[in-house]
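Problem statement: downstream parser choked on a complex file, so we are re-checking the raw output for the CU-O-CU linkage run. The parser issue turned out to be on our end (a line-ending mismatch), but while we're here, posting the original submission so the record is complete.
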Amino acid sequence: MAARELERPGTGRVSAFDLTAAATTLSIGRRQVNTWAYGGQVPGQPLRVRQGDTMAVRLRNELPEATTIHWHGLAVRNDMDGVPDITQAVVGPGASFDYRFVVPDAGTYWFHPHMGLQLDCALYAPLIVEEKDDPGPYDLDQVVVLDDWLDGIDGNSPEKALKDLVSMGTGSMDMGDTTPMAKSSVLGGDAGDVTYPLHLMNGRPPEDPETFTVPAGGRARLRFINAGSDTAYRVAVGGHRMTVTHADGFPVAPVEVDTILIGMGERYDVTVDPLTGAWPLVALAEGKDATARAIIRTSDAVTSSAPPAAARPKELDGKRLRYSDLVATEEARLSTRRADLHQTLGLTGSMMGNSWGFDGKPFADHAPIEIEQGQRVRLTFENTTSMWHPIHLHGHSFRLGTNAAGARKDTVNVLPGESVTIDFDADNPGQWMTHCHNTYHLEQGMALLVSYVT
Ligand code: C2O
Ligand code: CU
């Protein structure tokens, strides 16, 4: 893995950061919540680096339990990938760990622990890798992080939420007619099983929205990140279309849409040229009848103008981005070649007992998929469950579908009854997780290992 790192065109520049994970009290709107966070804020401070830089991050663990950091979407060297017991030993309470790796690709990424349910508290932050030659111009480069929140509210916690899911699935909890299951036709049925009291945009609840100010006549680049655990978000800007420029960090041919559905772990970059005024930026929690929001305001807007708090932009029901609309730019395409290996994997499990897995097996029982360096690998995910799953592959950016121009991504939503095929080049040796990015499904076993054997 060190050899692979040497081939990377590094700038030689080192970007160093200190990061402390600790229990903290956060203000979310008027609420005070006890939770775990990086640097005492939610989201954690965005880290910005340049492509080719060496990132040196010292993680100090002041949590009462062990943790790690996973750099979601970045094809880092395997021993920096943050998967406990597989790529590194856990970082115990009071201990620290130095992550150090060359940042291979530009784009919008993020990081979070890869331990239990820790992601469903405030332990997440954006990681923005700037292009060597910034394709700008943008007058505002704004990260927009979406998150479903329950920790510390009315005695709830991720552990309690999981317990409730398991007892719901065994029928020991009386659900009456008030089944909390969220429904969405866009997601093919069950949109999520965890009930969240709040949905946050950049850590702010809907009644306390952040305002993004764009210079008059200017352009905003919005970098959406879904850091949620059990919620897909449908995003839109009132009165505007968005031009999608990147999916999961990699460039796509610009495509104009009204709205985008973003699964957990997915990222989209868009540009918006706001008309004079103040406009709602809304993220609908798909199937959950709740929203997260912010305001986009131009610098020449009349100061008293503000979108009504309950605004539901009609764009949410307009032209929605489909995966088939995503076309990789020339430089982002995989080369044309045949797959050396094709494996089909069933996504399996159900709400009953709340057990999830691949091919009917939880992580501990599923044999790793063995691949060899240099191979073109094809995986087909067949969803046999009645729920959608955002499937994420570590260490690689895959091509979506079998078409040469398919977009590069690292996370893909697989709807019930649907099959999705991905191709990738085995060019980053190590042991890599592929798993559902629903925090609760991952914890309940929906994960397996892609293992380089030579
Ligand atoms: Cu963002 Cu293994 O995950
Ligand atoms: Cu899942």
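For whoever reads this later: The radius of gyration is 21 Å.
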